[in-house]
Amino acid sequence: MFKKVLKVIRWVLSLTFISTILAVVVYRFIPVYFTPLMISRCFEQIGKGESVKLYHDWIPLEKMPDSMPVAVMASEDQRFLTHHGFDYQAIEKAAEDHLKKGKKLRGGSTISQQTAKNVFLWQGRSWIRKGLEVYFTFLIETLWSKQRIMEVYLNSIEMGDGIYGVEACAEQNFGMEASQLSRRDCALIAATLPNPRRFSSKNPGPYMRKRIGQIEHQMTFIPAFPKEH
């Protein structure tokens, strides 16, 4: 009986492993129209008695302004093009600030980690979810290009209440298509990403306007995002 249970467990683990790889391979080529976060936000809205709001329009990276990936790298992950999914320098710096200066421990998630979390996992801070985030980050860094990771990120990241992706954000908050966004608009969107439901790119306050200037300054040190060959 014990051997049969072990056999079943091995089969389940093998099928799970294979299915995760297949999912990553499939999403290398097809648009990601829905994510676990989008679904959970819809249930949150229903639970609060609100009407469901979900704005999401997938567009290829080529239809986004060149400044958009540069802006999110400047704001969220300046070593995106050189690391392999994990920014060990940022992790080390955060740990050092926490231990030596008593600062609050920061997450330091890279764009790759955020993409893995948004597309394949649920929200939460458990060690199991964090471990799976590491696993999926490794998979997308191995099986996807940097261009694909950025494309999925900019199409799936939460950018406001019920707003997901740069095209929906441009339409809802700027009244235009993403391709029409200016360099400053891109910096403004990037400035909201730590907490897009608190900070609005439609009605930016003094703090947001200050962040825009900081991000635009950092953008001058970020190289143009390379095209995929």
Automatic annotation (TrEMBL):
InterPro entries: Glyco_trans_51, Lysozyme-like_dom_sf, PBP_transglycosylase, Pep_trsgly
A Pfam family this chain is assigned to: Transgly
Biological or metabolic pathway of the protein: Cell wall biogenesis; peptidoglycan biosynthesis
UniProt membrane topology term: Single-pass membrane protein
Gene Ontology MF term list: pentosyltransferase activity; peptidoglycan glycosyltransferase activity
Keyword entries, A-Z: Cell membrane, Cell shape, Cell wall biogenesis/degradation, Glycosyltransferase, Membrane, Peptidoglycan synthesis, Transferase, Transmembrane, Transmembrane helix
Subcellular location: Cell membrane
HAMAP family noted in UniProt: PGT_MtgA
Its biological purpose: Peptidoglycan polymerase that catalyzes glycan chain elongation from lipid-linked precursors.
Name the record gives this protein: Biosynthetic peptidoglycan transglycosylase
Organism encoding this protein: Prevotella jejuni
